[in-house]
């Protein structure tokens, strides 16, 4: 009998045998461990006596190019991330390339060439010896202005042109060089004796004050060298105030003071004279008018006339005068005007006390007085731009308690002067008004046919009666204080 062939297995049988677990691979659950109470208590006691373990933090890679990175490692420049290290070798911005840098350099060069003034390239091409020959004909002020005009001239001439301005003999040239810079320094003022800009102490509050009052405009180591013009006894006009008035007129109120702030009305401390000053701009020049008034009696002897006219401290007139008042007929004209004042009113009862004679002219003296042909005309100083007018006016004396004697005759001396353009104390008009020595100024040639008085009064609509204009010193005698005609 033949051996039986093996029985073929179907699909289901093969699938079941494949999914049948192998021997020894059977998953079984382990039984839970036995609970040990004593071991848990001992373990808890040991944990109390020990410090808690510190958690270990994983180090993060530091990005050196991250601006928000802080710490010590951010200052060392170390890179912990390899990917970031590889990317750092690349150019992050395009302008770091050589082509972009060269393009930027060429653009800047073109912009600088366009900002330069036209002709500088031609100036630089000329030999330096030629410019040295040209500048030898210039003053130190023009030489410094040329070097200050552009960079090319500064490189050709060098800094020596500015050092030359600091020499004592070039002080006036230095002032001429610094004066156009007034627009740049509203808080400072140019001091001509020092040739530097000083800071203003009382900005906007500078005023004319009495000489006995401390009134500094700026701190200057040479206050005695400041140029001043005499107005009346105890009152002077510093040139620095003239500067401030012109600066406010040219550049604005921040640079100086209004010219109206210089106007003043005051009474003399040592006499009965009253003064009124006023200033006015005309065609770039500052005009001054000073009106001085004092009550006077008639028939005064010469000694009383001198007592009325002269200040006892330095024997100068109480009214405003220029520096050449001694050379001429000014004081003689004032004495002549005083002699025209009639004697005071004398009633008949008072005349009978001295005798039986009665003079009706003394009872009612003239109210309106006309001066003679000698003292009536206006006078002009031949050496400075100054004009004088002497008048007698009937004025009310409000301090007199007698109501019948309240109106009195008063002598009025008016002075008009041209103080110049205010740029420097060396201006011809200012220098001629304050300097006793002759400066070569001819007022009859410099001034027009219209007098200063008419020019000044025309701005307020006042018309001065027509007067002849004569010279204050027709004989052209210049004796000064040595002569005796002034006293």
From TrEMBL:
Transmembrane segments: none
Region (Disordered): 1-32
SUPFAM superfamilies in the cross-refs: F-box domain (SSF81383)
Domain of life of the organism encoding this protein: Eukaryota
Limits of the F-box domain: 124-156
Annotated protein name in UniProt: F-box domain-containing protein
């Amino acid at each position: 009998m033949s051996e039986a062939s093996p029985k073929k297995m179907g699909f289901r049988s093969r699938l079941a045998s494949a999914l049948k677990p192998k021997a020894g691979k059977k998953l079984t659950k382990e039984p839970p461990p036995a609970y040990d109470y004593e071991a848990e208590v001992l373990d808890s006691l040991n944990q109390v006596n020990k410090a808690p373990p510190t958690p270990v933090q994983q180090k993060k890679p530091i990005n050196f190019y991250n601006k928000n990175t802080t710490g010590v490692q951010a200052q060392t420049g170390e890179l912990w991330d390899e990917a970031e290290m590889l990317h750092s070798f690349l150019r992050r911005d395009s302008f770091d390339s050589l082509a972009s840098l060269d393009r930027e350099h060429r653009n800047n060069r073109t912009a600088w060439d366009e900002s330069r003034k036209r002709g500088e390239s031609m100036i630089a091409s000329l030999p330096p010896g030629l410019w040295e020959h040209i500048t030898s004909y210039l003053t130190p002020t023009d030489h410094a202005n040329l070097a200050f005009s552009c960079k090319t001239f500064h490189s050709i001439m060098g800094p020596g042109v500015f050092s030359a301005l600091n020499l004592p003999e070039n002080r006036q040239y230095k002032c001429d060089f610094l004066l156009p810079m007034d627009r740049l320094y509203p808080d400072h003022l140019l001091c001509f004796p020092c040739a530097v800009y000083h800071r203003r102490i009382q900005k906007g509050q500078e005023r004319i004050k009495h000489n006995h009052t401390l009134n500094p405009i700026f701190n200057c180591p040479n206050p005695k060298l400041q140029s001043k013009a005499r107005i009346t006894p105890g009152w002077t006009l510093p040139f620095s105030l003239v500067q401030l008035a012109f600066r406010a007129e040219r550049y604005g109120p921040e640079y100086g003071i209004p010219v109206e702030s210089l106007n003043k009305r005051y009474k003399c401390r040592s006499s009965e004279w009253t003064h009124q000053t006023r200033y006015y701009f005309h065609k770039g020049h500052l005009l001054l008018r000073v009106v001085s008034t004092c009550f006077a009696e008639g028939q005064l002897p010469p000694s009383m006339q001198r007592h009325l006219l002269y200040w006892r401290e330095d024997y100068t007139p109480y009214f405003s005068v220029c520096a050449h008042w001694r050379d001429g007929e000014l004081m003689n004209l004032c004495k002549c005007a005083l002699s025209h004042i009639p004697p005071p009113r004398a009633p008949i009862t008072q005349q009978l006390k001295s005798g039986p004679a009665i003079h009706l002219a003394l009872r009612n003296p003239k109210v309106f007085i006309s001066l003679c042909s000698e003292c009536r005309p206006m006078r002009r100083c031949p050496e400075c731009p100054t004009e004088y007018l002497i008048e007698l006016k009937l004025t009310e004396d409000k301090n007199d308690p007698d109501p019948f004697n309240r109106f009195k005759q008063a002598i009025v001396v008016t002075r008009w002067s041209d103080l110049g353009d205010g740029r420097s104390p060396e201006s011809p008009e200012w220098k001629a008004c304050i300097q006793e020595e002759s400066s070569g100024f001819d007022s009859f040639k410099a001034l027009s046919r219209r007098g200063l008085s008419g020019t000044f009064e025309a701005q307020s609509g006042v018309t001065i009666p027509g007067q002849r204009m004569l010279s204050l010193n027709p004989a052209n005698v210049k004796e000064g204080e040595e002569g005796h005609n002034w006293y």
